[in-house]
Design goal:
MetI-like fold; single chain; 306 residues
Length: 306
């Protein structure tokens, strides 16, 4: 197990290095002048030259890359040209909000999707099964950029049950979490339904029933535990996606997370902030995949990581 974790950590560092290289190169392919962003449209050529010298923009590209990687190893992502502060401090300040929203969205996905999927599998072919399939289709077909404004219009404007935006209080988290988790809940419904149907047709389920075990015990101890194993992969992917910053949801609800930072960086052509947001998302993906692989071995003894 330890050897596997160390090997995956080394691989993760390689992935992050590759992401840093690609984003650094793409930074110079974008037709935007960082000095112009800092100095403004009325900056004189002398002022622009001074800004380029101050931020090392006039150095050769390899020198800038070495300087950037050296700062990166010390946790310094450079200054944000738009916000006027360090990118590292901005991401660290916004990360808790994104984590809070990611966990809330995941809770909505699991609390809604898994029970409906299990019920659909246990009542295969019934009206409940068909309603669950219809819910899954509707949820997967509903985009977040449409659902978010609709929920705001109904529950924050027409009926003022929840705040219209921001992050003040627990109520402000409800609508963003529902918007984020509804399509995921529909996906979990389909996934757990398919997995449960496969498990319920296995020989060990029939053997457990033949030994006289009650049906609820068979479902809880044998069927559900094995059916939930494929869910781990999807949970890891969802958490990585959420932690990388959900741009649409965070901007619709004015949620001060990484996604809102990424939107600010893109709209203002802020290269350091863009690169920082991309690296943060890459770290979330690497960490989520490592955690999921370890949980696989813990929950399923048949899986061996070595």
């Amino acid at each position: 197990m330890i050897v596997y974790i160390v090997r995956r950590l080394i691989w993760g560092v390689g992935v992050l290095f590759g992401v840093a290289v690609v984003t650094f190169i793409l930074r110079y392919l974008v037709p935007a002048d960082p000095a112009r962003i800092i100095g403004g449209l009325r900056a004189t050529p002398q002022a622009l030259a001074a800004i380029r010298h101050q931020y090392n923009f006039d150095d050769p590209l390899p020198v800038q890359f070495v300087h950037y990687m050296g700062n990166l190893l010390h946790g310094d992502l450079g200054p944000s040209l738009t916000l006027g502060t360090g990118v590292s401090s901005v991401l660290l300040a916004r990360a808790p909000y994104t984590l809070e929203l990611a966990l809330a969205g995941l809770v909505v996905e699991l609390l809604v999707g898994i029970p409906i999927g299990v019920l659909s599998a246990l009542r295969h072919g019934s009206i409940a099964d068909r309603m669950a399939v219809l819910f899954a289709l509707c949820g997967l077909s509903t985009p977040t950029f449409w659902l978010g404004p609709v929920l705001l219009s109904i529950f924050a404007v027409h009926w003022t049950f929840f705040p219209a935006g921001g992050s003040d209080g627990a109520l402000a988290l409800v609508l963003p979490a529902i918007t984020l988790g509804l399509s995921g809940a529909a996906w979990y419904t389909r996934l757990i339904r398919s997995s449960m149907l496969d498990v319920l047709s296995c020989d060990y389920i029939r053997t457990a029933r033949a030994k006289g075990l009650p049906w609820p015990v068979v479902v809880r101890r044998h069927a559900l535990r094995n059916a939930l194993t494929p869910i781990l992969t999807q949970i890891g992917l969802d958490m990585a996606y959420f932690l990388g910053g959900v741009i649409v949801v965070e901007n619709v609800f004015a949620w001060p997370g990484i996604g809102q930072v990424a939107a600010i960086a893109i709209n203002n052509d802020d290269p350091n902030l863009i690169m920082g947001a991309v690296l943060f998302g890459a770290i979330a993906v690497v960490a989520a995949n490592l955690i999921v692989d370890i949980l696989y071995a813990v929950l399923d003894p048949r899986v061996r990581l070595e």
